[in-house]
Design a protein that fits this description.
By secondary structure, the chain is of the alpha/beta class. The protein folds into 2 domains: 7-109 and 263-312, FAD/NAD(P)-binding domain; 112-258, FAD/NAD(P)-binding domain. Helices cover 32% and strands 27% of the residues. It has 10 helices and 23 strands. The strands form 7 sheets. It has a 5-stranded parallel sheet with strand order 5-2-1-9-22, covered by helices on one side. A hairpin with a 2-residue loop joins β7 (89-92) and β8 (95-98). The chain is elongated and about 75 Å long.
Length: 313
């Protein structure tokens, strides 16, 4: 640490970590040294993924270079391997960082790789590579449908199932429906061929973390776009020809957009901090109880529910 200048270390440059670094750099100026540790030199706002998938933006337009957009922050490239809260140290691949205050915002880890072992048709929608892969996959499936004379194969290639109605799932379904319809309009061989996008989730409603009114509005907009919204429904059985949903319908498909299974970074498991469902327990100020000067935010933080807290009090 630099003498006479406190050091704040931020672990992870996801949405929460990037915003924390940006906010602190503006508010504390040069009085505090802010260090951001992240494996990559760029970060990606997830809200731009739909525009990337539909071709409205190029990859270089959606990525934020950390050093260029956070000029008052020292960016350290590396993967954090351990955090010693007693010694106030962050260990990463190539060194050690001491801290006066620590913000853990390591983000989430997608389970799409695991899902791909279950079905060869599984794709994700959580980063630039997955968004570009899904875009190419949609083009390919519709091209295969246009070239096929087999009704079953045409239907399977033109049916896209999104499992998980969180932000990633709803965004993928909306952008995917828009993209596939645009492609179909330019292909005479696809005229009259139904193109289905099914969004399924076992929860009672879409986007369960937001207010009911916004959830209902989202569902209404998706349905107006032609997306089939299925709540209280998830995957029942997978075969090489498609999948059966728990509502009983068998869906011929060659595309399963897997947006379930985003879990906190495995780093948090070995910290010895109080946790809830794999997330670090924090108070209403995002501070970790009983651990001085350590905070957690984003996907790794179990933030108390203000409604539940007020009703219990």
């Amino acid at each position: 640490m630099t003498p006479n200048r406190p050091q704040v270390v931020i672990v992870g440059a996801g949405v929460a970590g990037y915003q924390a670094a940006l906010t602190l750099s503006r508010e504390v100026g040069g009085d505090v040294e802010i260090v951001l540790v992240n494996p990559a030199a760029v970060t990606l706002p997830p809200e731009l993924l739909p525009r990337l998938m539909t071709g409205l933006l190029d990859p270089d337009q959606v990525s934020r270079p950390l050093a260029a957009t956070l000029p008052r922050v020292r960016v350290v490239l590396g993967t954090v391997t351990h955090i010693d809260t007693r010694a106030r140290r962050v260990l990463y691949e190539r060194g050690v960082l001491d801290y006066d205050r620590l913000i853990i915002s390591a983000g989430g880890v997608s389970e799409v790789a695991h899902a791909s072992t279950i079905s060869a048709h599984s794709v994700g929608f959580h980063n630039v590579g997955q968004a570009l892969h899904l875009r190419d996959h949609i083009h390919r499936q519709l091209s295969l449908a246009a070239a096929s004379t087999d009704p079953f194969e045409r239907a399977a290639c033109c049916t896209f199932v999104v499992l998980g109605a969180g932000y990633a799932g709803t965004a993928a379904a909306s952008a995917g429906q828009s993209l596939s319809q645009s492609i179909a309009r330019l292909c005479s061989r696809l005229r009259g061929q139904p193109i289905r996008w099914i969004l399924a989730d076992p929860a009672e409603r879409l986007l369960p973390d937001i207010r009911h009114r916004l959830s209902r509005t989202t569902a209404r907009v998706l349905r107006s776009q032609g997306v089939e919204v299925r709540t209280r429904t998830t995957i029942g059985q997978l075969t090489s020809r498609g999948l059966r949903l728990t509502d009983g319908e068998f869906v011929p498909t060659r595309t399963i957009v897997w947006s379930f299974g985003v879990r906190p970074d495995p780093l948090v498991v070995n910290l010895g901090l109080a946790a809830e469902q794999g997330r670090i327990r924090v108070d209403e100020h995002l501070a970790v109880p009983g651990v001085p000067d350590v905070y957690a935010c984003g996907d790794v933080a179990a933030v108390p529910d203000p409604v539940r807290r007020s009703s219990s009090g």
